[in-house]
Automatic annotation (TrEMBL):
<dbReference type="InterPro" id="IPR003593">
    <property type="entry name" value="AAA+_ATPase"/>
</dbReference>
<feature type="domain" description="ABC transporter">
    <location>
        <begin position="7"/>
        <end position="232"/>
    </location>
</feature>
<dbReference type="InterPro" id="IPR050763">
    <property type="entry name" value="ABC_transporter_ATP-binding"/>
</dbReference>
<keyword id="KW-0067">ATP-binding</keyword>
<dbReference type="InterPro" id="IPR017871">
    <property type="entry name" value="ABC_transporter-like_CS"/>
</dbReference>
<dbReference type="Pfam" id="PF00005">
    <property type="entry name" value="ABC_tran"/>
</dbReference>
<dbReference type="InterPro" id="IPR003439">
    <property type="entry name" value="ABC_transporter-like_ATP-bd"/>
</dbReference>
<dbReference type="GO" id="GO:0046677">
    <property type="term" value="P:response to antibiotic"/>
</dbReference>
<protein>
    <submittedName>
        <fullName>Multidrug ABC transporter ATP-binding protein</fullName>
    </submittedName>
</protein>
<keyword id="KW-0547">Nucleotide-binding</keyword>
<keyword id="KW-0813">Transport</keyword>
<dbReference type="GO" id="GO:0005524">
    <property type="term" value="F:ATP binding"/>
</dbReference>
<keyword id="KW-0046">Antibiotic resistance</keyword>
<dbReference type="InterPro" id="IPR027417">
    <property type="entry name" value="P-loop_NTPase"/>
</dbReference>
<dbReference type="GO" id="GO:0016887">
    <property type="term" value="F:ATP hydrolysis activity"/>
</dbReference>
<dbReference type="GO" id="GO:0005886">
    <property type="term" value="C:plasma membrane"/>
</dbReference>
Amino acid sequence: MTREIVVQVENLDCHYGDFKAVSDVSFEAARGECYALLGTNGAGKTTTLETVQGFRRPTRGNLRVFGANPSRKPHTVRQRAGVVLQSGGHFGEITVRQTVELFASLSSRSDDVDAVIARVGLDHRTKAVVQTLSGGERRRLDLALAMWGRPELIVLDEPTTGLDPESRKTLWHIISDLKSGGTTVLLTTHYLEEAERLADHVGIMHEGRLAIDGTLDEVLASRPARMTAEIMQAPDDWFPSPPPGVSITFGEKSGTRTVTVEADDQQASLHWLLQDAHRVDAQLGMIRANPASLEDIFHQISQSSGATQ
């Protein structure tokens, strides 16, 4: 199936004087997909999203959103897009329904007020004054406004920061439903579990550059899997030489010796470890095998310097 590209960013640079906030960033997001842009504070994520939305002109690069240049035709882009900022701003003295009605009066898109409120699960709170809402309810109200008129693109800048786990999962369900309906989602988040749950494609920024980019499976496959085994009994001089592509590290946890194996082929490396342990009559205890996680990759990139795509 051919992917319909909604957002295309090529060789994006954004400079503030001599400071390079974003340097040579390229990625794309297709219809009905979620692209998660990750990175530490100051990595350039928000600047990139502001440029995609047309709020900031790039220093260099080619951007297309719905085929249009967002800095030259921002109105064309914003007519078809919704946004949830890191912190929403509402009039606390009016009700949920009045808030949505006010937004509707300012929007070029049309929708049904009650239907939109119901879509985010606030139909039982339509008459509640905004300042009485919980943090999770306010974020759902933010999302209701972004969803107004069923936009083709929604930009979510850390939408679940500060929410309790249940409220976060509620928003995940809503975002998944948006994707199923054909909406493209651009997401920044510090919750890596959130990215793994929602994202089809992932980019991790570091020092203004895109250090890694690809489908979630491709990104996870770019780092080796890890296995850790407890050593219950083994010769003190057991330091096996691993085959090519496999690295081992000996350590200690709670007074028990451990051996950690990292390799691209988890099954083959486990087979090798068990064979070598048998060779020296070593007895292994509990073995924990884990594929590479987004958290492992994120921390490895964020702790490095000069990461390149």
